[in-house]
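Limitations
The C-alpha cells in this dataset are predictions for the assembled complex, not deposited experimental models. Users should treat interface geometry with appropriate caution, especially where small molecules or nucleic acid strands are included. An illustrative entry is reproduced here so readers can see what is and is not provided.
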Amino acid sequence: MTAPAVPAGLAEPEAARAPRGIVGMLRRIVARPDGSAGLLILVFFTVLALIPNLLVGPLETAVTATGPRLAPPSLDYPLGTDQLGRSMLNLVVHATRVSMVIGFLATLITVFIGAVLGIMSGYAGGRFDAFTMRVADFFLVIPTFVLAIILTAIIRDVLGTGSREILGIRLSLVTIVIVIGITSWSSTARIIRSQTLSLKERAFVDRSRVVGAGGGHIMRRHILPNVTNLVVANAVLTFAGAILTETTLSFVGLGDPFQPSWGQLLDAARNVGAPSLGAWWYFVPAGTCIVLVVFAFTLLGSALDAVLNPKLQARR
Amino acid sequence: MGTRYIVGRLATAVFTIAMIVLLNFVLFRAMPGSPERILLGRIPNVTPDIIEQTKVRWGLDKPLFPDQFVRYVSSTLRGDLGFSYSARGRPVTEVLWQRLGPTLLLFGLGEVVAIFAGLALGAYSGWRRGGAVDYVGNGVSLVLYSMPYFLLGMGLLLVFATGFGWFPTYGMLTPGATYATPLDLLADLGSHLVLPLATVALGLIGQYAILMRSSVIETLSEDYVTTARAMGLRDARVLRRHALPNAMLPTVTLVAINLGYVVAGAITVEVVFNWPGLGTLTVDALSSRDYPVLQGVFLLLSVAVVFANFGADLIYGVLDPRVRS
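Predicted assembly:
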C-alpha cells in the first residue's frame, strides 16, 4: 500500500515520529541488527524461491534421478541423495519455492479475512461484533490443527486429487492454503478490531461522519490506512505461523509428493526412517531452512514491533 | 471469588463446546459420498432396496434438522461417538480411551517439566538481564521456538538413539518383552519415554522462558518493586516475594491457551517416536480416512482444551483479584 494521506501510525501526537509509509519503515528496520539479519535471511530464501531452475535445474523426479540411493553428501551431491537417488540440494531448493508460496498465499488470505472482519466488527459494533468475536474466540481456543487436518482431508476428498493446477500450484496445496486461512484469521481480527475501536472514537472519524461520509467510506479511507502498519506487523508473524502449519500438515501426510515442500521432505524422511538409519542429510537441510525462515520472521517481527512502538524503546 | 465470574466463564465454556458439537455435525454432513454409501462400504451388488433399508436403519430417511441433529447430539452426550471404519468397527470411544493413557503420560509429564524449567530459566534470565544465562538462554529459546516439535524429535532420535544407541528408537515398550518385576516394566517404559519427553519439554520450554523473562522484566520496573528495594529488602526476597508472584500471572493463561497449539506438536512428536497415543491414532485415521475417529479426536481434544481454559480462568481468578469484578 502506498503512503496514506493521513500519517500511518499510532496516537496522533506521536504521528510525527511514526514512519511515513513503507519506505521509511523499511529504512528504520534495516538500521536495527535484528531487522537487517531477518531481512537478509528472507531475501536469500526469496531468491531461492524465485529462480530454483536456474540454480539447481528442474525438479528431479524418480525418473530423472541419477544419483546413488540414500548416499551421504559428496562432491557431486553436496547435500546427499534420497532413497530414489534424487539430489537433496535440488529437492530442498525447489521445496523452498513451494513452502514460501504456500506461506505467502496463506498469509494473504489470513490477513485479508482478519483485517476485513476486524475492521468491520470494530466499526459496526453491536450484534455483528459480538457474533464475530465469539467465533474468533472459538477458533482461538480449540485445537485448530486437528480441525485443519479434518478440513483438508474433507475438502480434498470433495475436490478430488487430480493433477489440476491453479496458478501453477497443485489443487492439493491450494486446499492447504485455504484451510490455513480459515483456521488462523482470528488473532489478526482481534488485534485489528481493538485498534479500530480506539480509532473510531477519534475526532477525524467524527468529522468525516459529520460531513456525511458513509460507513464503507470511513472504514476504507480512514480506518484502513491507520491500521496498515498493524496489519503488516501482524502479517510477518502470520507468515511464520503459516509456514509452520504447512510444514506440520505436510508432515502428517497431507503434503503433495509431486510438489514437495520442506514439510513434505521431512515426512518422506520419516517414512524412509532416516533418523533411525542415520541419514541426517535427508532431514537436516529442510529442517534448517524451516528454522531459519521462522527465526528470520521472528527477528523481523521484533524489529517491526520496536519501530512501530516507540514506547517499547523507551522502556527497554 | 464471585459467583458471577465463575458462571460467566462456565457459560463461555459450555457455549464453545456446543459450537464444537455443532461443527462436528456439520463436518460429518459435508463429507464426500452419502452416508449410506459409506455405511455399506464396498459391499458389491447393492440394490436400491438395500440402500433404502440402510437409510431407515440409521435414521437417514428423516430430515437433517431436527431429527438427525437431535439424535446426533443425544448420542454424543451419551458418549456414543459412532464406530471406527478401520478398527474393525469398534466403538470410537473405546479406541480413543485406549490411546488416551500414553498421551496423558507423555504430555502431562512434558508440561510439568517444561513449566518448572521454563519458568525458572525465564525468571533467572529476566532477573539477571544481559548476563550469560540470559544471552545463551534467550538464543536457545528463540531457536527452540522456531523449530517444529517433530524436527527436534528427529534430531534427538538421530543423535541419542541411532548415534549413541542410548535409547530405543520407537514405541512405548519393547515389543514382546516379558517383565520379571514391575520395576523392569518401569525401566523399559522409562527408557522409551526419555526422548519423546525431552522433545515435548524442550519444545515448550522456549515459549515459557521467553514469556516469563519479559514478564519478570516488566514487573521489575513496577513501583512496588522499587519500593521493596528502597525498603532495603534483599534481592532474593524482592524476587521471590514481590516480583515473581505477579510475573507468573500471564504464564497461567499462556499454559492454558497453549494447549490448543501443543496438540499439534503432540500429534507430530508421537508420530516421530511411534508413541501409541492419540497423535499416532490421528495420523493413522487420517491416512485411512477414518472420519468417525478423526472427529472423535477433535471432540475429545477440543473439550479437554476448553476445560483446561476454564480451569485456568478459575486459577487466574484466585490469583488475581482484579479480574473477579
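Some entries come with short summary sentences. For this one: The longest strand of chain A covers residues 165-166.
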